[in-house]
Amino acid sequence: MADAALAPAAAAEGAAAGARAVEPLRFDGDNSFPDCACCGTCCELNVLAISKAERDAMHACIEHKGVRPIDRNRRCCPLRSDEGTCMVWEARPQVCRLHHCQVPRREVLRQNPAIVVPERLALLDLHAEFIEGVNGHVAVRNQMFGLQAIPHHQVAA
Q1: Quick check: 74 pLDDT over 50?
Q2: What is the dihedral of CA 99, 105, 107, 109, to 10 degrees?
Q3: How is residue 25 annotated by DSSP?
Q4: Which residues are CB-contacts of 17 (< 8 A; sequence separation ≥ 6)?
């Protein structure tokens, strides 16, 4: 009898979930989806397609906030905090801003035709950029401030 009583509630919940799936996505155009939970799922990659301007904005944010990238041995983004949040949230690239945990990127773009994704973007190895300093940014910063990237095994759990 209890299972029969739960069936209508489960059906209603399923219908509500289905209704949510067809609602338009709310992308604020500036930084991300307003309902983003900052879970860090978008930080699970180490190589991203980003523009030079986005890379430079990330470096500027690192400098401004005094962010210390974490050496994660190329397993994920070195700018992801131990809590799973982005340490350069306000300057993260479009590919990260467009990430939605429940909706494929193609659907995000289909529902938001005003979003323009450049066709030719360079692939950036985040470890090489922010840990090894291959483009000079981090190497210069480390020299100026005497900072080193924090090896992942030394980060407090």
Answers
A1: yes
A2: 90
A3: P
A4: none
Band the pLDDT of 134: cuts 50, 70, 90: confident
Q: Would you give the distance in Å from CA 21 to the centre of its chain?
A: 22
CA 39 – CA 50 distance, rounded (Å): 21
| β-strand partners of 122 | 50
Q: What is the mean pLDDT of residues 127-156?
A: 61
Q: Please give the model's pTM, rounded to 2 decimal places.
A: 0.66
User: Tell me: the pLDDT tens digits for 38-70?
Assistant: 777 888 888 988 999 999 999 999 999 999 999
Which token pair is 18?
């289905």
Residue 40: is it exposed, middle or buried by C-beta count within 10 angstroms (0-12/13-18/19+)? middle
Sheet strands (E) in the chain: 47-50, 70-71, 122-125, 150-151
Quote the tokens at residue 136: 């000079």
Tally of CB atoms within 10 A around 71: 19
Determine the Cα–Cα distance for residues 27 and 96; give it in Å rounded to an integer: 13
Residues 6+ apart with CB under 8 A from 126: 45, 46, 47, 48, 77, 78, 79
pLDDT at 78: 94
Residue identified by tokens 């989806």 is 33
